[in-house]
TrEMBL record:
Transmembrane segments: none annotated. Coiled coil: none annotated. This is IRG-type G domain-containing protein. It holds the Pfam family IIGP. Signal peptide: none annotated. The lineage of its organism: Eukaryota, Fungi, Dikarya, Basidiomycota, Agaricomycotina. GO terms for cellular component: membrane. Residues 46-245 form the IRG-type G domain. One of its GO terms (molecular function) is GTP binding. InterPro entries: G_IRG_dom, Immunity-related_GTPase-like, P-loop_NTPase. Belongs to the TRAFAC class dynamin-like GTPase superfamily. IRG family.
Length: 255
């Protein structure tokens, strides 16, 4: 009994030390939790289950609509809005019967009164076959916590930054004494935004405690992605084609 108590104190002290140092714990689910969550979220054998997760307001619902080839106003689209509209994890089968995919819209982290590291467990992210970690303005500790827990559960992840058209416009608006309609100026703003995005993600992965492996950041816009999913070839693609190809390749490898 004394040995067990001493071990418990040691474990508690170690956990407290890690929290003080900014190291988030990784909590793995039990088999019972795993099965209960699969049943609750209607996980079906033979299908590939994608989740889109991230902080509130990052555009998760819009991205899911784009992955399904739908606009936000389309019938059957996930609800979107200025405020966080997803209160519970919502399941959306792919509308194309040739695609054995299910897309899950996960409530935004930061809207719930739980620590960021606990978000992964409480939302049942451990059941998914692949997780898209979506961010808008900043790549946060919450995003890092999701990636760390995914690694512990051996779930492949894709880091995606949304709303590229809006962000590139913001870069242009911040430039003084330039012709924002000049194609060269617009191309330079686009490259500046892409480089800044990738540098931000790389820096945050390196500064995580402990550091996380280098990982690509995909830069996309929902309008462009919707066109790509529907077989069109928009001129303003950044990473939309590559992201879609990589996700489909992941699904083929793991099914």
């Amino acid at each position: 009994a004394e040995r067990r108590a001493a071990d418990a104190r040691t474990a508690r002290d170690e956990a407290e030390r890690k929290l003080r140092e900014g190291i988030r714990p990784v909590i793995l689910p039990t088999i019972a939790q795993l099965e209960a969550t699969k049943e609750r979220l209607q996980y079906k054998a033979g299908l590939f289950h994608f989740a889109v997760a991230g902080i509130a307001g990052s555009g998760k619902s819009s991205l899911i609509n784009a992955f399904r080839g739908l606009r936000n106003s389309s019938k059957g689209a996930a609800p979107t809005g200025v405020a966080e509209t997803t209160a519970a994890t919502t399941r959306y089968p792919d509308p194309d019967p040739k695609n054995p995919f299910v897309w899950y819209d996960v409530p935004g982290a930061g809207t719930l009164s739980i620590p960021d590291w606990q978000y992964f467990t409480d939302q049942g992210l451990y059941i998914f076959d692949c997780i898209v970690v979506l961010f808008d303005n900043r790549f946060t500790e919450t995003d890092v916590a999701i990636l760390r827990n995914c690694a512990a559960c051996k779930i492949p992840t894709y880091i995606v930054r949304s709303k590229s058209r809006q962000h590139i416009r913001n870069v242009l608006d911040d430039k003084a004494d330039v012709d924002i309609d000049d194609p060269d100026v617009r191309a330079a703003a686009r490259e500046e935004y892409i480089a800044a995005t990738r540098a931000m993600v790389e820096r945050n992965l390196q500064e995580a405690k402990p550091p996380l492996p280098e990982q690509r950041a995909y830069v996309v816009d929902k309008e462009t992605l919707t066109q790509v999913v529907n077989g069109k070839e928009p001129k303003d693609c950044i990473d939309e084609w590559l992201l879609l190809q990589d996700l489909l390749g992941e699904a083929r490898r793991r099914r």
